[in-house]
Design a protein that fits this description.
By secondary structure, this protein is an alpha+beta fold. The protein has eight helices and eleven strands. This is Cysteine protease.
Length: about 425
C-alpha cells in the first residue's frame, strides 16, 4: 500500500508582500513483508500516524496563525494612523468653526481624545440603518457626558399642587385636534434660535419663549423678551440664575413683577454675575401675563390639546441629546425624570419615524435641526418619551389685557400727551 504525501499551504500578507507558508506530511510507510504482521500492527501504526500528524501540524498551524496575526496588526496600525490623521484634521477644523481655545497645559490634546471618542460613537450610531435619528458634531463635541450634564442640564422639576393643574386643556373624548401644528408658521415664535451658552439658564429661555408665544397669539405682536432679566432678578427662592431653575417660577416672577422687558433693552450676557437692572427699567416693560397653569400631567393627549392652542414649556431628559442632529429622537433617555427645560412649539407625523413633538431648544441654531428637536410622540408610557408629559406648564394672557407700554401703546400714549400739552398751551 502506498500512502500519499500531503502539502498544506498557508497564505498571508506581511508588509504588503504575499508570503506562502507550506509544509508537508509524509505519510509514506514502508510495506512489511508479512501481511500478518501488518494486520497485527494496523491499529498501533494508525495511532502513531495520527500522533505524527498532530505533532507536525499543530506547531505549523500555530506559526501560520501567528504570522497572519502579525500581518493584520501591521495593516491595522497603518489604518489607525491614517484615521487618526483624518480625525486630527477634522478636530482642527472643528476648533476654528467653534472658536475653541484651550489655555491649560495639555488641554488641547486631552480634548482631542474626547473629540475622537465622541466622533467614533457618532459614526457607529449613524452606520446603523435601524436608527430613527442621526447624530453629529457640534459645539459640545469636546465634552464628556458628565461635563455636558453638569453645565447645560440645570432644569428643575416644578413642585405642583392639585390646584395648579387646570381643566382648560384636559383632553376629553370627542375633542377634535389638528393633525399638525407649527407655531413658527403662525408667527408666534421668534425666528432667531437663542443660545444659553455656558450658563444653565434653560429654564429662562423656555419661560420667555412661552410668554413670547402667548403674547403674539393674544395681541398680534411678536416681541423678543429678555432671558437675562430672569437670570439677574429672579434669584434666591426657587430659581438660581445659571445654576438652575424652573419655568413655572419664572412665570410667577413675571406676574409679580408686572411684566418683563425686551432683550433689546436688557440683552443677554450669558452669566448671572451682574446685579438686577430691572428696577431701572420700570417704564420699559413691554409684556405682561395674567397667570400660569399646569397641563394635566402624564397625559400626552392633553399636552397635544394644549400645544394646539399655544407653545408649552416642558421638562425632558436630555442627557443623551448633546449630539442630536436630525430625525425623530426615540431615546435613550429617562422617561421618569427631566433635567432640561424646553419649549414645545408644535407636533406632527413623519412618514418614516412616526409621531413627534416639535421642540425649540436653547442651544443655538448649530444644534439639532436648526436648533429644534423632533421627539417621539404617543409613547407607550404615561410620562411620554423622555418624560415630556411629566411637568408641562404655560402662561395665560387674556385677550382684554394689554401690554404695559408696548411699542404701539407707547406711541399712542405719547401722541395723546402731545395733544393734551398743545391744547393746554392754547
Amino acid at each position: 500500500h502506498v500512502y500519499p504525501t500531503f502539502f498544506i499551504f498557508f497564505t498571508t500578507s506581511l508588509n504588503d508582500q504575499n508570503v506562502i507558508l507550506y509544509t508537508y506530511i509524509d505519510l509514506t510507510l514502508a510495506e512489511t513483508s508479512s501481511e500478518k504482521q501488518k494486520t497485527k500492527k494496523k491499529q498501533k501504526d494508525k495511532s502513531k500516524r495520527t500522533m505524527a500528524i498532530s505533532f507536525i501540524t499543530i506547531p505549523l498551524l500555530t506559526l501560520s496563525v501567528l504570522l497572519l496575526s502579525l500581518s493584520l496588526d501591521v495593516v491595522t496600525a497603518t489604518d489607525s494612523q491614517r484615521n487618526e490623521a483624518e480625525v486630527r484634521t477634522m478636530y482642527e477644523q472643528w476648533l476654528v468653526k467653534n472658536g475653541k481655545n484651550y489655555n491649560g497645559l495639555g488641554e488641547k490634546e486631552r480634548r482631542f481624545k474626547i473629540f475622537a471618542d465622541n466622533l467614533k460613537s457618532i459614526e457607529e450610531h449613524n452606520s446603523d440603518p435601524n436608527q430613527s435619528y442621526q447624530r453629529g458634531l457640534n459645539q459640545f463635541s469636546d465634552l464628556t457626558a458628565d461635563e455636558f450634564r453638569s453645565t447645560y442640564l440645570r432644569g428643575k422639576v416644578e413642585k405642583k399642587s392639585v390646584s395648579d393643574v387646570e381643566e382648560r386643556y384636559k383632553y376629553k373624548e370627542g375633542d377634535v385636534l389638528p393633525d399638525e401644528v407649527d407655531w413658527r408658521e403662525r408667527g408666534a415664535v421668534v425666528p432667531r434660535v437663542k443660545a444659553q451658552g455656558d450658563c444653565g439658564g434653560c429654564w429662562a429661555f423656555a419661560a420667555v419663549g412661552a410668554v413670547e408665544g402667548i403674547n403674539q397669539i393674544t395681541t398680534g405682536e411678536l416681541i423678543s423678551l429678555s432671558e437675562q432679566e430672569l437670570l439677574d432678578c429672579d434669584r434666591g427662592t426657587d430659581n438660581f440664575g445659571c445654576t438652575g431653575g424652573g419655568a413655572v417660577w419664572a412665570f410667577d416672577f413675571i406676574i409679580k413683577n408686572d411684566g418683563i422687558v425686551s432683550d433689546e433693552v436688557y440683552p443677554y450676557s450669558g452669566n448671572d454675575t451682574a446685579a438686577c437692572k430691572a428696577i431701572e427699567m420700570t417704564t420699559t416693560r413691554v409684556v405682561t401675563i395674567n397667570g400660569r397653569e399646569v397641563v394635566p400631567e402624564n397625559d400626552e393627549m392633553s399636552l397635544k390639546k394644549a400645544v394646539a392652542h399655544q407653545p408649552i414649556t416642558v421638562m425632558i431628559s436630555a442627557a443623551n441629546m448633546s449630539d442630536y442632529k436630525s430625525g425623530v429622537y426615540k431615546g435613550p433617555c429617562s422617561n421618569l425624570w427631566g433635567d432640561h427645560n424646553v419649549l414645545i412649539v408644535g407636533y406632527g407625523t413623519s412618514p418614516d419615524e412616526g409621531d413627534y413633538w416639535l421642540i425649540r431648544n436653547s442651544w443655538g441654531p448649530g444644534w439639532g435641526e436648526g436648533g429644534y428637536l423632533r421627539l417621539q410622540r404617543n409613547f407607550n408610557e404615561p410620562t411620554g418619551k423622555c418624560a415630556v408629559a411629566l411637568a408641562p406648564v404655560y402662561p395665560i394672557k387674556s385677550n382684554s389685557s394689554s401690554n404695559l407700554l408696548s411699542p404701539s401703546v407707547f406711541k399712542l400714549v405719547l401722541l395723546l400727551a402731545f395733544q393734551l400739552i398743545s391744547l393746554a398751551l392754547l
